[in-house]
User: What shape does this take?
Amino acid sequence: MASSKAHQATGFAAGVIAAAIVARHGGGPFQAGVLLSFIAGMAGATAPDWLEVAWWSRARRLWITHRTLTHWGIGWLALLALSYHLLGHSIYAAPAFGFACGGLMHLFADWPNPLGVPWIAGRHSLNLWNSGNCDLIVVAASWAAAWFIGQHVWLHDAYGLPWLRHLCAG
Ligand SMILES: [Zn+2]
Assistant: This one.
């Protein structure tokens, strides 16, 4: 796996991306959905790893094989699509969407190293580097994506942050 630090760092980016998209769709009362999706994005980015640990037991063994069901691409994509669809209709959609963004970000971070990620069936690996190496590239790529999406939503459209629009309009 990518190191947990890398997952947290990319999780921050996933949270920003999720929050930006939720803001674009209306964050609900007081933009609460924006905050919720950000927090859920941070949680989701480490979820595929902690979901497979039996944290309720004393031994804390893995209850399923590492990088199987919790790293399943289709599952995360389905959650993403479903929650995206419900944005603006259900208050649960924003955190679910953030969680899915984080989960997918986790898979992207795990993808380049040799163990790979079971996107559909069977693992696939980009086979670029070993675990922990080049975390910086993964983190930088995720932040670049967050910056790209964030500035598109917030600076160009000034959506979800009305005060920014006021500020810019002087
Ligand atoms: Zn993982």
Summary: The pocket of zinc ion is lined by residues 1, 48-49, 71, 106, 110 (CB under 6 Å). The two ends are 48 Å apart (CA to CA). The chain has one domain: 4-169.
